[in-house]
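Troubleshooting entry. The earlier prediction with uridine-diphosphate-N-acetylglucosamine gave an output that would not parse, so I re-checked the input for stray whitespace and re-submitted. Clean input:
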Amino acid sequence: MRILVIGGAGYIGSHVVHALLNKGHSVCVFDNMSTGRTENLFPQADFIQGDILDKSALNQALKNCDAVIHLAAKKAVGESMANPEKYAENNITGTLNVLNAMAANDVHHFVFSSSAAVYGMPDVSVIDESCPVNPINFYGFTKLEIERFLDWYDRLKGISFVSLRYFNAVGYDASGAVRGLEQNPQNLLPVIMEVATGVRPELSIFGNDYPTPDGTCIRDYIHVTDLASAHVLAIEHLASGKESQKLNLATGSGHSVLEMLQATERIIGRTLPHRFAPRRPGDPAILIANADKATAVLGWHPQHSDLENIIKTTWAVYQK
Ligand code: UD1
């Protein structure tokens, strides 16, 4: 199959491209390179530098494609609350441009990067797809809005989709195939890595008074190689004519912020400077998900997401 990977030069996108190429698919990356990295581009994939706000570039890129995997989005939760216009334009208008260009070019399979943020602050200990969706930040709202559009484009335009609700994406390809580091990261593990490499002086731990065993927030960390394999399975699911799906991608267990820090300290063999800071607005205490539906529908099983592997594969890239 010929697959257009929008956002394919980003952190998750480049792992997806790597997994698709390994399975023998033909890939074209479409990326505006605002956060994508040239070192994340693979010579075996075609590359178009373009923006999802540019409808004619999208139309051109979609000629001769069989499917689209769309990962290009703004993703900083705090920024989405301060600058919703930017998130509305990129994440909603941009994605609608992609869907409209797909409809115009007879491309009928779509895999979407959705997020745990669609659930908001669930009052269950383990989230499954039957939980109510109720985002508490604008970023999560943009992802949920697109899922709602997808239901309609499926019915009205025959675009079947798999929406993948990622929990916390972490780790790097173990073979070293992806080397690009995110610039000015806000997510926990890259921030810890920047403290370890001296790029930042210390880690601020946002809140130590949450109702968790050590008082810091718990998240379900899923290795990006496991995320990537789910995209390949999702494409194969759609290509075989099966129905649209919204699926959690998670491990079913979680780690606290302090556990992530301490595990990194153990693996790199030294302590890292940190301090406790006030809670960050919009952070739920615990987010852990059940991904049984992805297992049942796609035959997906996370295989790379143990804490040791997550931190070792990330450290290997940051050390360089
Ligand atoms: C959030 C979104 C998630 C999205 C991801 C993309 C929510 C609930 N989750 O994940 O859907 O895909 O962003 O960016 O909206 N932390 C610190 N210090 C730091 C950085 C983080 O203590 O310097 C803590 C946070 O408070 C949080 C945990 O580490 O408790 C994980 O944070 P982060 O990596 O930013 O991811 P989420 O906010 O969980």
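This one parsed fine. Residues 163 and 246 are 5 Å apart (CA to CA).
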